[in-house]
Amino acid sequence: MPYAVIWTEKALKGLKRLPRETAARIIATVERTCDNHPDRLQQLRGSPYFKLRVGKYRVIMDLSDEAMIVYVIKVGKRENVYDNI
Fold this sequence. Notes:
Helices cover 29% and strands 33% of the residues. The chain has helices at residues 9-16, 20-36; strands spanning 4-7, 42-43, 50-54, 57-64, 69-77.
């Protein structure tokens, strides 16, 4: 059964800063991953969050297995997406 995806304001703000094609690719990858294999997300070391790699961009997520919901926390380039999580 697929997980529901909830985008936070911070994640939506990060998406709006990206080129339209890149944002569309990130959205499609998040939806596809959460529909099929959310267990393939990599957990961040020392953090309860997970990451998804989409080219040179990273998507930081929180996974709730009980409610089957994925919260997208932050979207950005690899160089600075991990700051202030």
